[in-house]
Specification:
The structure is a homodimer of 366-residue chains. The first copy, chain A, has two domains: 169 residues, 3-Layer(aba) Sandwich (Rossmann fold); 183 residues, Up-down Bundle (Dehydroquinate synthase-like, alpha domain), CATH 1.20.1090. Chain A has 13 helices and 13 strands. In chain A, the strands form five sheets. In chain A, strands 4-3-5-6 form a four-stranded parallel beta sheet. Chain A has a three-stranded mixed beta sheet with strand order 1-2-9.
Chain lengths: 366, 366
């Protein structure tokens, strides 16, 4: 039985078109049934989500007559590595699963990335279903098909493009999400407003208090609008040849912060938040947005309880980490900057000195 | 400067169409130039090929003005694992390579599978070029896009479909190939005759002595005809939903032999050779081919200096290894068998007792 208030968004990717169901108290048995092709389902989750929701999904999938196995990984970005990926392969092979099986990711972005990548590689590709349990993964990982793992020399350096059969985004599961992680998810929501939708930015300014308080109806609306933006961009540019790079607003700076601090010290959304401030600051120095726009950007980020400055990081190290980022093409750094509020561009035409100033201006004193 | 006798075969895969250049003393600088897109080339090879041909390719690619880095792996199927795959990622990241780089596989099937899989996953996909240096990899791995690594519980269980930009198959490099490996390559050549081309079988019967002696013109013709067969099948069925499974003639039995003996004890082609005998034997017991056809199959395999029987393997273990093979769909074993000489079929309609007899009849006494 579908929730009364459930919204459905279709990601248009030709023969890999799939739906995202967004609502509260969704019924996984009914919603997943048409999308599980074979008889075997491997549910991949982490030790935190295992205690909260694993049995609910094991029961739902078992009730469909499927063989269910589970793989529970350690919880955290620092485990998004090749060794933990291999544990999923071990579980699939020990369960005797075949080319017709489904891997279901039950968790946040780390679980989605790892389970998705495993589903892309196991037997050269099996089916994949996503049940994102954090706001960040609901708005970010459930559209786009990017999966992968980290390497000691860089984030998400190893991976695949893999589209799911279906995504369930259940707002009820956000009740158990720590406030810090809810804020981290809001960073990506704000990103969609800043990069392409000035009206959405106004909506966020009107509703930020309710979002922070966990209002399920407001959160569902924020997830729907964010996913709709991403779905439109991804449909135009699935393999990130062009427009899709806009989604990396704040990410090149953010990756440098995350890499320097060590994966998992700051949440991804927190690093992206400060990264967006740096991008806005550079855009302001370039004369593309006003100082008022920069302050407005900082304000909405602060109201989401997100950091607008990072710890002091030596500039040379910050720049070295930025150049390891994937958004580097043939050694020429391209950044996502703001031409105006609600309109980002991909550009290498910026002043490098201004970039350094923007980085230093948004660090805490050492 | 292209060799006078060079033949070119195009693998028709729409926007992923690519050429295979087949000949002797090919000029890599001229032939590769149009197919290297970015500025960085990682040549992946093994310790054996490193001594013979690495410098030649480093020089050729450097002469094109590219940045060249190398990654030399241990030589052997037993190293086709996740740890050695990770060494390629280490090399790519330590060299600071970006999304626009090319991974060039210089070696046999193991190097092609690992370098190809690494190119599919590094930064979610970079460019890939193949220079297969064994007969087996020239006829088998250079068409089809199957890449991957082994897992302790099964061969090629983790991988991706990844098409190269171009393949260079140089017969001159077969002069340094050990005779046992030349024979292993001929197993796959014979496979194409048995599964789909009775005329090619006659040609092989006429020319087997010259092939075994390493005649470059005959070898080039055998590679061309084998690749043409495979290219036609793959173009029809890239992701192995149907017809492509025919290419696995002998492989389900062969995988069981390889798995039981331990990877690398028998060469892949040797296991496939005996596997094809078992498939022919079962086809004969089913009444589809005559006893004369079975003897003819064994004869051409023996003339290629390949084994027609494997060591004694307990039947239950043999069957357990067969069922780990990927050709198992929802627990129902499908085999590639011969409906007549030069015509294979994918079927689960065979007598299981006959299958057991065919396995046992082609084992050496314990």
């Amino acid at each position: 039985m579908a929730s009364e208030n459930m919204q459905t968004l279709h990601v248009e990717l030709g023969d890999r078109r799939y739906p995202i169901f967004i609502g509260s108290d969704l019924n996984p048995q009914t919603l997943l049934e048409p999308y599980i092709k074979g008889k075997q389902v491997m549910i991949v989750t982490n030790t935190t989500i295992e205690k909260l929701y694993l049995q609910h999904y094991v029961d739902a999938v078992s009730a469909l007559g499927k063989t269910v196995a589970t793989c529970v990984l350690d919880d955290g970005e620092k485990y998004k590595d090749i060794e933990h990926l291999n544990l999923i392969f071990d579980a699939l092979l020990e369960a005797g699963f075949n080319r017709d099986c489904t891997v279901l990711a039950l968790g946040g972005g780390v679980i989605g990335d790892m389970a998705g990548f495993a589903s892309a590689c196991f037997q050269r590709g099996v089916y994949f279903i996503q049940v994102p349990t954090t706001l960040l993964s609901q708005v970010d990982s459930s559209v786009g098909g990017k999966t992968g793992i980290n390497h000691p020399l860089g984030k998400n350096m190893i991976g695949a493009f893999k589209q799911p059969q279906v995504v369930l985004a259940d707002m009820s599961q956000l009740k158990t999400l720590p406030p810090r992680e809810l804020s981290a998810g809001l960073a990506e929501v704000i990103k969609y407003a800043l990069l392409g939708d000035a009206d959405f930015l106004v909506w966020l300014e009107q509703n930020m208090d309710g979002l922070i308080a966990g209002d399920a109806t407001l959160l569902a609306e924020a997830v729907y609008r964010s996913c709709a933006h991403k779905a439109r961009i991804v449909a135009n540019d699935e393999k990130e040849q062009g427009e899709r790079a806009l989604l990396n607003l704040g990410h090149t700076f953010g990756h440098a912060i995350e890499s320097y601090l060590g994966y998992g010290v700051w949440l991804h959304g927190e690093a992206v938040a400060t990264g967006m401030v740096m991008a806005a600051d550079l855009s302001c120095r370039m004369g593309w947005i006003s100082d008022e726009d920069l302050q407005r950007t900082k304000k909405i980020i602060q109201r989401a309880n997100l950091p607008v400055a990072c710890p002091a990081i030596p500039l040379d190290e910050f720049l070295a980490y930025m150049s390891h980022d994937k958004k580097v093409l043939n050694g020429q750094l391209r950044l996502i900057l703001m031409k105006k509020m609600g309109q980002a561009v991909i550009t290498k035409d910026f002043d490098v000195e201004f970039m350094k100033q923007a980085i230093l201006a948004n660090q805490l004193s050492a």
